Every structure is written in structure tokens, then in C-alpha cells.
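Inputs:
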Amino acid sequence: MKKVFKAEKISDNVWWVGASDWNVRNFHGYLTSRGSTYNAYLIIDKKVTLIDTVKAPFADEMLARISSVIAPEKIDYIISNHAEPDHSSALPAAVAAIRPEKIFTSVAGAKTLTAYYGDLGYTPVKTGDTVDLGKGKCAFVDTKMLHWPDSMVTWYDRDKVLFSQDAFGMHLAGSYLWADMYDWSVLEQEVRKYFANILNLYSEKVIALLDSLPGLGLDIGIIAPDHGPLWRKDHEKIIGLYRDCAEQNPRPKALVAYATMWNATKCCAEAFADGVRSKGVEVELADLNVCDRSDIMTKASLSGIIALGAPTMNNQVFPLMADVLNYLKGLRIKNKLGFAFGSCGWSGEGAKQIAAAFEEMKIEQPCPMKQVKYMPTEADLQEFFNTGAALAEQLLAKIK
Amino acid sequence: MEKFVCNICGYVYDPAKGDPDNGVAPGTPFAELPESWVCPDCGATVDDFEKAE
């Protein structure tokens, strides 16, 4: 059975030929609550060009969408902006169906694609290189480490489309192609989550790229990312949101994330949170038993205070917390006030390992780590409340 | 002293500046970086570096 899917026109000469993955929920450990899309684009010019592909199981969907516009074998060029398999694993199937004259990718992209799929015949390009398509041309800009070494963006001058690969994207499968057809709060939530979980560690490079954008002199009509909806207006809103995410300025909010075995750490977390709230600072309690690490990272990115609590188990910090610490460290969160706490029976490595992780991450801990034996006493809980209130006051003073 | 560039992410090691955040004093030539040193931006090893043009 041949699948039936139609392409969707985005400008005079460009079509969206990607795929919607409505029900993906675990994207290499990132909870994609609203699914995602893998966006591929078809430029109809004298040289017909395909920009990026999709995840391998969706190759038929992409080829069916292409076929609704033009026979796939009429495609001359493929451009791979990003070699990660969600955009490239359909490349072998695409190459088999298309037999393209050339496949353009960055220098690092050629190496990465070769490692994944063997040598399919890549033509490496660098910043400033252009490819003439006949009536329009494609220009390339290297965006190394945003977010892989191979990442680059492609500019199609004829229709003023910036194919931005993962930049300005989000995991969101929906009925509409254009971002302006969604509620802004949904877009903001998904962009912040995407940035926090994928780009946060490269925040400085993002700021440098955003700073360089005006200098490129691009009169951008459409920003076409590799995931989620496209931007035909509100460019300043999405670019501003990216800058806000990258700056990581502290916000008047506290995340209290904890793991618990017999509710002792939970009681400490609740008392601390109540102390924070007593100073009018927003607080969010998250139990790691039910809260996904990618949501913890998103909440952490929005919080000026990160309080992490865990029991000690087998002379180690509770495993769920070890996972979160590893994740936060890799994503290089900064500008936070940290607080480590927990409950233990005898040895007490739990809170100590959290405090050590904060230190390694260079996160300031104005209040010393606090650990209780077995269950907190009423006096302990009062102390947790007071610590929460004190940290909230410090945060408010810092933000002023 | 010669600068070296990371082929993975583009970070440039400048011996004049060293990498004080990771315990490398200014003035340390690339060849004398400790074995455990990795690119501060992307974590690549010294094998991925080459002389800057």
C-alpha cells in the first residue's frame, strides 16, 4: 500500500514535506508531551532541492508528501543542515529514491553522516559558500555546536526562507504549520523546554549567534526550523525568547525537587517550600518519583533558587537524584542559589553528594547543607522553613 | 606561542591565556597541557585539536 500524504506550501517555491510524530513521548529521555515533527522542505527551482529529511520510520511519509508535488527522482540536490538521526536517518531511503546529483552538508556533517550511513557522496560546504539553484540560491552559515558539531543553517534568498535546523524549533506536533496559529503560552512553554534541555549548555554561543544576526543582513521572511511550527511573523518574539533563555537571568521562583523513601525528605521539602512562599516568592515542589528529568530541567531553568533533597541509599545519594544531578550538570545551569538537604539513617552521603555537585557546578550555596537523621523533628522543620524564607529574601535582593 | 583550535567545536586554546577555570595557568604551551585536559567547551580531547591558521 502506498501511503497518501500531501505537501504543504509555505512560500512561492517552497513546500513542507516533513512528518508528524504525534505520539512520541520519550525523545532520548526528553518527555515530549505534545509529540514532535521532523520538518523537511522541498525547494522547486531549476535545481530541485530537498532540505533535511526525517526519522527513518517516517521516510515513506516524507516521500509521499514529495510525490504530491514532484516525482522524487526529479530532485537534484539534498542539503543536510543537521546530521542527527531524527533529521538524517531517512537519508539512505531518500538517496535510493532520488539519486541526487549532490548532497551538501558541513565539513563535520560529512564526517558524521559517513559514520552513520557510509559514504553517500557528500559535498562539504562552509560559511559563505553558496549553491546556485537557477532562479535563487542557497547560502550556508556554520552554527557549530548549536547543537552538534555539524549544525549549519541554509538561507534561500528567492523566498527569503531561513532553514534554521534545530534552532528556533520545539517539540510540538499540531494541526497547523504556522506558529502564529498556536496559543503563545503553549509556544513559550515548549520553546523554553526545548532550549533548557537541548541548548542551555551552549547559551554563550546562542547569544553570539543572535548578536551576529543583524550583521548577516538577511531580510528574513520565514524561519523554518526542523521541529515544530514555522515563523512567518513575530520573528522578534521568538528571537527575544531565545535570548531570554540564553541569558539565564535569575527569576523570582524556587524549584524544590526531592526524592523520598519514607517521607522524611518530603517533609523537609514541604517546610522549606512553605518558607519560600511566606516571602511571596513562587515555589514549585517536584517529586522525582513522578516528575521527568526534562521537566525538572525546565523548571530549574525558570527558577532562581534550586533546592534539591534526597535520602541516602546504599551509602549513595538516592539514584533518581543522581540522575538529575548528572543531567543538570551537563546542561550547565547557572545564576542559581542552591540548597542541598535530605534525610539519612546513619552514613549520610545523600545531601553531601548534592552539595558537592552544586559546588562542582559553581552554584552558590548561601545556606549550609542540612541533613536530618531518619525523621525531621519539629525544630528541624522550623529550621527548613526559616532557610526557605532566608533564601527567598536573598533571591529577591539579588534580582533587585 | 601557537594557538590551537578544536576541530569539533571551534574553541581556540590560547597559551597566553591558558585555561585558569580548569587549572591551566596562563603561559602554558599547548604541548604541556595535562593529559586529563579536555576542550572546556565541548569535552573533546587534545587529539581533536590542530594548529590555528
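The interface with chain B takes residues 108, 144-145, 149 of chain A (CB under 8 Å). Flag for discussion at group meeting.
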